Amino acid sequence: MANYYNQINMMMEKIINKILITDKKGFKIGRKNEELSLLDILVIKKIGSNSMKPIYSLVKETEIDRGVISSIINKLVANGYIKKEKAKEDKRVNMVILTEEGEEVYNKILKGQSDILEFILNDITLNEEKTIIKFLSKVNQKMMY
Q1: Which residues does residue 86 pair with via DSSP β-bridges, in sequence order?
Q2: What's residue 140's pLDDT?
Q3: Low-confidence residues of the chain: pLDDT under 70
Q4: What's the Cα-to-Cα distance from 28 to each of 4, 39, 50, 89, 123, rounded to whole Å?
Q5: How far is 96 from 110, CA to CA, in rounded Å?
Q6: What confidence score (pLDDT) does residue 89 get?
Q7: What pTM was computed for the model?
Q8: What is the DSSP letter of 33?
Q9: Residues with Cβ < 8 Å from 75, sequence gap 6 or more?
């Protein structure tokens, strides 16, 4: 075991705590300054820019319960970030697409992620980047949900 076990553990706990607190408060990204949860942001990202996505594929990709996804979609529709439509080829399939305001939020999300990564990776070496990838890969393998 590495010499930095306690420090790494403490930093992981701080990061998880900050994520939980920030999610509880909500992210103020949209024009209306309403709070979006991490799940709201995840759904907006999965829908992506300029593409229609079937709701069932959101359920599959996110591995989130259909009822929870429906609730998130209804909230995002009510806030004007996405709209629902029936698929042209199969009217039984519900599709979602970002509105213009949803596109703005999507771009803000991507910009925020880019800024964070740029901050983190700005002054580290290639070997340190590889170490970060290895670390995050192991964390991802052990995450349970």
Answers
A1: 94
A2: 86
A3: 1-2, 33, 49-50, 144-145
A4: 35, 14, 23, 37, 29
A5: 19
A6: 86
A7: 0.83
A8: -
A9: 40
